[in-house]
Structure prediction request, 475 residues.
Amino acid sequence: MSPPLSRRGFIGSAAALSAAPAFARAAADQAAAPVPVNPLVRQRADAQIFRHDDGHYYMTGSVPEYDRLVLRRSRTIAGLATAPEAILWRHERTGPRSGFIWAPELHQIDGKWVIYFAAGPSGGGDDVFRIRTYAVVCDGPDPMTGPWSLLGEFQAPWDSFNLDSTSFVHKGVRYFTWAQREPGIDTNSNLYIAKLESPLKLAGKATRLTVPTLDWEVRGYKVAEAPAILHRNGRLFMTYSASATDARYCLGMLTADENADLLDAKSWTKSPQPVFTTCKETSVYGPGHNSFTVDEQGRDILVYHGRDYEAITGDPLFNPDRHTRVQRLYFAADGTPDFGVPVGNGPLPERFVSAADPTKLIAHEGARLIAGNPALAQTQFRQTPGRAGDRSVMLSPILMPDHYLVANKDGSLTLEPDRKTADFALRSQFVRFDDRATGTLRFAAIAVPGKAIGLSGDQIRLVRSRDATARWRAD
Ligand code: AHR
Prediction:
């Protein structure tokens, strides 16, 4: 039970700001799109989430039993967490599609809903890994209701292990990219691309894009799989997943100019380091098998799976706790995606950019708060409900989830662990006021009436609530 708060302090702070007519909590904005909470959907790996032009988000992914194709639909990303899940198709009783069902993807091709997936036979031994790519097709306008039936098998260049296919259109041409084991190359899988003539037939020779050779690609298994495409800032970014599906699983990235010949392997440059990896500070392990979408405001969202613990007993492939997660995808000054770190469990974090000096954000170096623009993860703070009624909030850096912003009488702001004291319960409470007219917000300090989180030179300190340096833009 949190100790009682000083009502005088709370009323003082709220009055100091609510007296300014413009600063009213933008409840409508808050209600328009609820903030997703990670993990978004438990035990759904390899998730594909996309926003269709019907205004809905569709989500599919692998289930722990690997025995069926499922689909969810929601008007918001957050709504996918509780959306009903339709079972569209189940693996067959016998034959080549009676075992594992992996990594489905929903696509609309020539007006038809198609789901690509990898499947293998049941029965014993290694035959269950005789995985090949198939598609089912919907004989109706609504993918949630079907009816769905088998369209056939992907005509791959070799009769070998192939999976994790995706399709995209670029400059009016439809491409297909997938992971496959190539005869004569000692890896689990490499990435390939080709133009598509029809949903299961390539229009020409496949191009090998990458073979896992770097140390971070071959940990446990030599793997390049799960390609996903993002077209931004004049380039195509193809992320892929590498290494074993335990905590060593991570994202790599290939980049091509949007005007390049995508079927020429030399058009694609591989990032020498992984772009997204396990983060012990936020307790997300083995992030990977991603897709991309946009949120309700059109901002880029990274979709991926990850566990919230490191140690796995048995084969990670049969550990069910690869949960679906989402987070904002930002971009560096040169236009390349900045993946940061997997942000961890809880409501999505935000960045707070000073309205007075946009080069400065609320950030931290260790337990020291700073005003600057260091690495992305140092600028991401999670807002959680406070302990002074429903208008109070607490702020915590994603890299130090057990620390909170605390207001001090001398005007300083510090990061402190929850000391479970009345003093901490007062000093760690803020009230957020969003001003729709200016698109800015303020965080009033309940413990220091009339003061709010502000920019003071290259420091983050308490300033007068009405000062321009107390205004922030959430990003
Ligand atoms: O989740 C099942 C398979 O495991 C996926 O198809 C692949 O990306 C991962 O290695």
In short: The chain has two domains: 9-347, 352-474. The mean pLDDT is 93.
